[in-house]
Specification:
Elements lengths: L1 H17 L7 E8 L5 H11 L1 E8 L2 H9 L7 E2 L3 H9 L22 H4 L7 E14 L23 E3 L3 H11 L9 H15 L2 E4 L4 H6 L5 E5 H8 L5 E4 L5 E10 L6 H11 L2 H11 L14 H4 L2 H4 L2 H4 L2 E3 L7 H13 L2
Parallel strand pairs: 1-2, 1-3, 5-6, 5-7, 9-10
Antiparallel strand pairs: 3-9, 4-7, 4-8, 4-9
Helix pairs in contact: 6-7, 7-15
The protein binds spermidine.
The site of spermidine (SPD) has 14 residues, from helix 6 and strand 9.
């Protein structure tokens, strides 16, 4: 309900701005994943800076990139994963960051910077780190439950399962199941992953990257592929939901904050970046979204409950079972081709 109210307020602010009521305040246009920021913090920032933050949402890196490439204008800040930062930088979409305008950049935990893929934070600052796993209703699966991506091949759950509408995540799960790297460029391995995904697709209600959370909470779906924090959020609403990382391994993503070259509110955008990197703010954000903000100043503020959740805190044993999705340059097209074939398959 809280999340819906926030969405309504955001829409009302946008309407107010468009109709001229908000002309006396500056606006910041943020394009982010859904359920990925603590709305109380947004309100705090608006009050501190006498501004309005207007949010828009996407459900995959590729959707966001396609929209920007198609000419969507007006956004100031975006939150892409590491591999997508590389792609956007190559496309000349990103502002080179002035670190002097982000003093809280000193809080970034150097232990995790490699996951962002932008080692010098030239274009991006790390925001949150996630892994991808299986969310499931404990009373619907065999116990003890051994988490495996192969569950999507189990016809007993046909129509009750979803996988992410996110090509690198869905193909990545199939590749890991076959024992391959989720960054492979080997055409034989990719063809095998495609065939496996086409088999799984027969049992899926759909490929979906946003509404699957509500579907799991309402028990329309029993088993979903999803992002760690998003699935931890669903546990607040249905205590039968559990989260597990498949034994075959999975992806790790560091999502980052980038400023678009076309941003018209760069000072405010820097202020928001810096705000989100404040230790107390980052901790309050983590407690809401259930992802790891790699921020050394945040750790002392975290609750013991959050610190006990290894998949959120990315303990070494979790990281050992994860692989970072890389930008594959021209090889990215191979994944798009495979994905088109999976989508077209019956
Ligand atoms: N609700 C936001 C979830 C974003 C998690 N990271 C996405 C990584 C995609 N590979």
């Amino acid at each position: 309900m809280k999340r819906i109210c926030f969405f309504m307020c955001t829409v009302m602010c946008a309407v107010a701005v468009c109709t001229g009521c908000g002309n006396d305040v500056q606006e910041l246009y943020v394009y982010n994943w859904s359920d990925y920021i603590n709305e109380d913090l947004v309100v705090q920032f608006e009050e501190e800076h006498n501004c309005r933050v207007v949010m828009d949402y996407y459900d995959s890196n590729e959707t966001m990139f396609a929209k920007l490439k198609a000419g969507a204008a007006g956004y100031d800040l975006v939150f892409p994963s590491g591999y997508m930062v590389q792609i956007m930088a190559r496309e000349n979409l990103l502002e080179t960051l002035d670190h002097e305008k982000i003093p809280n950049i000193k809080n970034i935990d150097s232990a995790y910077v490699a996951f962002s893929l932008d080692l010098q934070s030239k274009y991006s600052v790390p925001y949150m780190i996630s892994n991808t796993g299986i969310g499931y209703l404990a009373d619907k699966v065999d116990q003890p439950f051994t988490p495996s991506w192969r569950i999507f091949g189990d016809a007993r759950f046909a129509g009750r399962m979803t996988m992410l509408n996110d090509m690198r995540e869905a193909i990545g799960a199939a590749l890991k199941t076959l024992g391959y790297s989720l960054n492979t460029l080997n055409p034989v391995e990719l063809a095998q992953a495609r065939d496996l995904l086409v088999q799984w697709k027969k049992n899926l209600a759909k490929f979906e990257a946003d509404q699957y959370k509500n579907g799991l909470v309402s028990e329309e779906f029993f088993i979903v592929q999803g992002y760690s924090g998003d699935l931890y959020q669903t546990m607040e609403e249905n205590s039968d939901i559990e989260y597990a990382i498949p034994v075959e391994g999975t992806s790790l993503a560091c999502d980052n904050i980038v400023m678009l070259k076309s941003s018209e509110h760069k000072d405010l955008a820097y202020a928001f970046m810096n705000f989100l990197l404040d230790g107390e703010v980052a901790a309050a954000n983590m407690e809401y979204v259930y992802y790891l903000a790699p921020n050394t100043a945040a750790y002392p503020f975290l609750s013991d409950d959050l610190k006990a959740e290894e998949p959120i805190l990315m303990s070494p044993s979790i990281i050992a079972n994860c692989e970072v999705i890389q930008d594959l340059g021209e090889g990215n097209a191979l994944y798009s081709e495979i994905w088109d074939q999976v989508k077209a398959a019956r």
